[in-house]
Amino acid sequence: MTRRSIHLFCMLMALGVSAQAVEFTNSVLDLGVGATALGMGGAYVSLVDDSTASYWNPAGLVDIQHFEITAAEQGHQSSALSLGANDVGSDYFFMSGGMTLPKFGSFGVSVMRFGVSGIPQTTGGTASNGDPFITLGSFSTADWGIFASYAKALVPAVDLGVTVKMLYGGTNNLQADPTTGVTGDANYDYFGLDLGVKVKFGELSPKLEGLVFGMNLQDLVNSGVKWSGTATSPDESVNPNPKLGLSYAPPLDFLKDAHTKVTFAIDVDPSVYSPSTLIHYGAELWYKEVLAFRGGLMQFTDSPQGSEPSIGASFRIFMLQVDYAYIYYTLTPIQYLDLSVHW
């Protein structure tokens, strides 16, 4: 099991063990959004040019030509998370919209939800059937994220954007358990601000055509996670994460003649899993702006075995685009399917 898989697993299970285990709250953001980005292993900070920019890098909103809406929804059942009880079920929803208004700039709004149901709540002791724990029942969690973004091209080749985000959520039907310190349902809220930039070097020099740098200073300003309904109602600090990205699309004549565009990208998350660094690798091929194939890899610097590969594809016709991604998490592989409308 990779560290990221463990991270996601703990996000689902920690509150069932102790109301003090709140350090995985913002992990809902680690899930990522958009099948295009996820199919490239999350290497999207310098590439994003759609409404998911509110999440990946708000500066990318500048590249939206007119209006765009993207939506995705999925449900998942996993016996791997059940601990011998009923299967744990999860549901994921994401929707984003963006538009560019000449002279005014670009705007974007996104909403995401991740919920988990059927999580077993256990306590110490021995059950009547001999199990080394007593099951009190099951509970559910729900996390919501709301993003509002604005972006504008400040000078030639440099775009700047900002995202204001709110997270809130908690548990439902969590029973009080004095043996673990659980007092019942727990809830949290969080506010943060991201600052994004994209530098398109090809607009500065023809020799640098196809080279793009991106940076998203995630949680540059934030309130910290504020809890209520727990034994101590702690405040959880959140460290800023300067997510960096670099991409290159070789401007080769034979590719242009074949109406094909190939792009390579790399992103670095230096703080999310500190002291380890998470690196995202991605590659994409578009043919005639109609069909695309992509692949990616997420890799921790201190864990060569902890890699998570992904693949994806897109099909575009008229105003519609369908994007697919498959991510091989060791614990439970996940598939994403998005539908986008551009006009």
Largest sheet: 14 strands, antiparallel, barrel
Named CATH topology: Porin
**What's the helix count?**
4
Distance between the termini: 43 Å
Mean pLDDT: 85
CATH arch. level architecture: Beta Barrel
Percentage of residues in DSSP E strands: over 45%
CATH class: Mainly Beta
The rounded Rg comes to: 21 Å
**How many separate domains make up the residues?**
1
Biggest sheet, spatial arrangement of strands: 1-2-3-4-5-6-7-10-11-12-13-14-15-16
Low-confidence stretches: 1-25
Helical fraction:
under 10%
| DSSP summary, beta strand count | 16
The backbone outline, from C-alpha atoms, is globular
How would you sum up this structure, described in words?
The chain is mostly beta strands. The protein has one domain: Outer membrane protein transport protein (OMPP1/FadL/TodX) (Porin). 8% of the residues lie in helices and 54% in strands. The protein has 4 helices and 16 strands. It has a 14-stranded antiparallel beta barrel with strand order 1-2-3-4-5-6-7-10-11-12-13-14-15-16. The longest helix is centred in the N-terminal third of the chain and has 15 residues. It is globular, with a radius of gyration of 21 Å. The N and C termini lie far apart (43 Å).
Provide a brief overview of the structure.
This protein has 343 residues and is mainly beta. The protein is 8% helix and 54% strand.
Fold topology:
Blueprint (H helix, E strand, L loop, with lengths): L2 H15 L17 H5 L13 H4 L10 E12 L9 E14 L3 E19 L10 E22 L2 E15 L14 E14 L10 E12 L2 E4 L6 E2 L4 E8 L4 H5 L2 E10 L8 E10 L3 E10 L2 E15 L2 E8 L6 E9 L1
Antiparallel strand pairs: 1-2, 1-16, 2-3, 3-4, 4-5, 5-6, 6-7, 6-8, 7-10, 8-9, 10-11, 11-12, 12-13, 13-14, 14-15, 15-16
